[in-house]
Design a protein that fits this description.
With 336 residues, this protein is α+β, with helices and mostly antiparallel strands. The chain has one domain: Sulfite Oxidase, Chain A, domain 2 (Alpha-Beta Complex), CATH 3.90.420. The chain contains 9 helices and 12 strands. Strand 3 and strand 4 form a beta hairpin. It is globular and about 45 Å long. Bound molecules: ligand MTE and molybdenum atom.
Length: 336
């Protein structure tokens, strides 16, 4: 993030206030248009990959559900989610081609170009520290029996852009419970794969590899925190952190560590990559907070990828009702 230049789009004129019925009718029209577009894209033209991204090119607006997916890598999803009123999904193409994953390159298009270097199976995860049975576990065994849930979350990068992403994953809390944390476990530390063969970005000391992240145990147990294995109904692609990545929607995107190979329960707070790199710029908590600017840019507004205008950033990325109580009594300007 040191190399980021935030685009300064001129602020848009304030939006017209639309009555609810007008708004709902507009949603229906858009949903109808999206369905019609899908029907026109007949199979047989272009690769499956091409079709999938083209079909998703038009943002899915106001449809009650994420469009069903049955191509390669389709996941069996136990519970699906409706799209919140007024929310539009960011297109599959944008979600998979505008990425931050410095191990695969520092430009936004680099991760999608380098993702095929990752060997996603077999994949093992080292379970360490304050747990009943530490050890190295195969990923499929680790997740076995945990029903996959679809979670449509806003994603707010610290660089002041955002997306709406239909993740597929399991609650982090459910997985941690399985590991039987000891009473001394107060924090969770997560680590990304270290392998310059698969991750060419690690050949340069852009960051202190491997990428590390962490959460307080109560944050980790919060029902909104998930480990994602997919998005848009299908297995994660390498660029999004396959085969296992963290999603904590009320925090800046850099907390969402990708391609996880280690989960360590700890009594003390773990060091984390970005906060070690620039402690004044990236805190341990990294809760989305429009009242605390990044030292080099404002956090008051954000650009939703695929849209022209910028929108206000919401405290805790709009999840304050669910998560603000985790931080009761804390000074969020100091502990950012
Ligand atoms: N290992 C690792 N995890 C990472 C990053 C990274 O560079 N390396 N970038 C972070 C940042 S800054 C963001 S915004 C999100 C981006 O996730 P996405 O590309 O799936 O949208 O991943 C986060 N996780
Ligand atoms: Mo980010």
């Amino acid at each position: 993030m040191p190399s980021i230049r935030v685009r300064r789009a001129s602020d848009p004129p304030s939006r017209e206030i639309t009555s609810e019925s007008l708004y709902l009718r507009r949603r229906e029209l858009l949903a109808g248009a999206a369905a019609g577009l899908g029907a026109l894209l007949l199979p047989g033209c272009g690769s499956a990959e091409d079709r999938a991204s083209r079909k998703a090119e038009a943002p899915v607006a106001g449809g009650p559900r994420v469009p069903p997916y049955s191509g390669p890598g389709a996941l069996t999803i136990a519970s699906r989610q409706d799209l919140a009123p007024g929310e539009e999904l960011t297109s599959f193409h944008d979600v998979t081609h505008y990425n931050n994953f410095y191990e695969l390159g520092t430009d936004k298009e680099d991760p999608s170009e380098n993702a095929d270097r990752l060997r996603l199976r077999p994949w093992s995860v080292s379970i360490e520290g304050e747990v009943a049975k530490p050890g190295v576990v195969d990923l499929d065994a680790l997740l076995k029996g945990l029903p996959l849930e679809e979670r449509i979350y806003r994603h707010r990068c610290v660089e002041a852009w955002s997306m709406v992403i239909p993740w597929v994953g399991v609650p982090l809390g459910a997985l941690l419970a399985r590991l039987e944390p000891t009473s001394r476990a107060k924090y969770v530390e997560l680590e990304t794969l270290l392998d310059p063969e698969q991750m060419p970005g690690q050949r340069r000391a852009v960051l202190d590899w491997p990428y590390r992240e962490g959460l307080r145990i109560d944050e980790a147990m919060h029902p909104l925190a998930i480990l994602a294995v997919g998005l848009y109904g299908r297995e994660l692609l390498g660029q999004n952190g396959a085969p296992l990545r963290l999603v904590v929607p009320w925090k800046y995107g850099f907390k969402g560590i990708k391609s996880i190979v280690k989960i360590r329960l700890r009594a003390d707070r773990p060091r984390t990559t970005w906060s070690d790199e620039a402690p004044r710029e990236y805190g341990f908590y990294a809760n989305v907070n429009p009242a605390v600017d990044h030292p080099r840019w404002s956090q008051k507004r954000e650009r939703r990828i695929g849209e022209l205008s910028r929108r206000p950033t919401l405290p805790f990325n709009g999840y304050a009702d669910e998560v603000a109580s985790l931080y009761a009594g804390m000074d969020l300007e100091q502990e950012f």
